[in-house]
Design brief:
Blueprint (H helix, E strand, L loop, with lengths): L1 H15 L9 H6 L6 E6 L9 E2 L2 E2 H18 L3 E4 L9 H10 L4 E8 L9 E6 L6 H11 L3 H12 L7 H21 L6 E7 L11 E8 L3 H7 L2 H23 L2
Parallel strand pairs: 1-4, 1-5, 5-8, 6-7
Antiparallel strand pairs: 2-3, 6-8
Bound molecules: zinc ion.
The site of zinc ion has 6 residues, from loops.
């Protein structure tokens, strides 16, 4: 019902507000809910939940470092930023999107580090929420990030399939593609050879309930020695963070010219 009303509102807005042939004004974009102004940055895990650990890297520590630096960068570019955590504290998954909803965020970004029992696996991945994982490995990553077994994830998927996913799924997918492209381009600029593991979808609890476009970024594999080494480098963080900012800006630009 809500989405039906929203659709009507959007259609009305399109007809009632004049726009130029090629670009909407910022005001129109904001009224359409297409302008990103407020971003909630979620440093994955924290407190009693260390996340994945490998090659001397603790996921909750790295995600917090990335989150704070990303926040500063976005703030300096004019965005309003909120964090789900700024210290080593445990925050339940549902509380994270709850904060984003309360703050009326336009985008929710959850930062994580990946791991695999095969230490040769490495690369950068961006996820958006779906009931079924886009592939077996995506489902595995979701099961690990959710802190549940693959079996339990299956039964939860059945429950989730009854919930109509928010209409923001397409926008989330779109932003995920922008992030994936921009981060890899920036990494290359900084002379990092990062494997493109693509955009995937999976049932991540941390993204469930977000009323705005939401993505989960897997910054790299701590289980891969070379990548673990890269993950702690300030210049890699700089590349990733600049890439995410590029992605938000290019996404908005793409909306404005649609
Ligand atoms: Zn994680």
């Amino acid at each position: 019902m809500m989405s039906y009303i929203r659709l009507i509102c959007i259609v009305c807005t399109i007809y009632l507000i004049p726009y130029t042939a090629h670009a909407y004004s910022n005001d129109v974009l904001q009224q359409l809910g297409l302008r990103i102004k407020t971003v909630v940055i979620d440093a994955g895990h924290g407190g009693k939940d260390p996340g994945t650990v490998g090659n001397g890297i603790v996921e909750k520590e790295q995600t917090l470092i990335f989150a704070k630096e990303l926040g500063k960068k976005l703030q300096s570019a004019g965005y309003t930023v909120y964090y789900t955590r700024t210290t080593d504290v445990y925050i339940p998954l549902e509380k994270r999107t709850e904060l984003a909803n309360t703050k009326k965020a336009d985008l929710f970004i959850s930062l994580h580090c990946n791991s695999h029992h095969d230490s040769s696996i490495a690369g950068f991945e961006t996820y958006y929420l779906s009931v079924q994982g886009s592939d077996k490995r995506a489902a595995f990553v979701a099961s690990r990030e959710n802190g549940v077994s693959a079996n339990k994830l299956n039964s939860l998927q059945i429950i989730l399939s009854d919930i109509t996913l928010d209409s923001k799924q397409e926008e989330s997918k779109d932003i995920a593609h922008h992030i994936q492209r921009s981060v890899l381009a920036r990494a290359k600029q900084y002379s990092y050879t990062i494997k493109d593991k693509g955009v995937r979808s999976a049932p991540f609890f941390v993204l469930l309930g977000a009323r705005m476009p939401s993505v989960l970024v897997e910054l790299g594999y701590v289980s891969n020695k070379q990548e673990a080494n890269i993950l702690v480098q300030a210049s890699y963080r700089k590349a990733v963070i600049q890439g995410i900012l590029d992605a938000i800006q290019s996404y908005q630009k793409s909306l404005a010219t649609k």
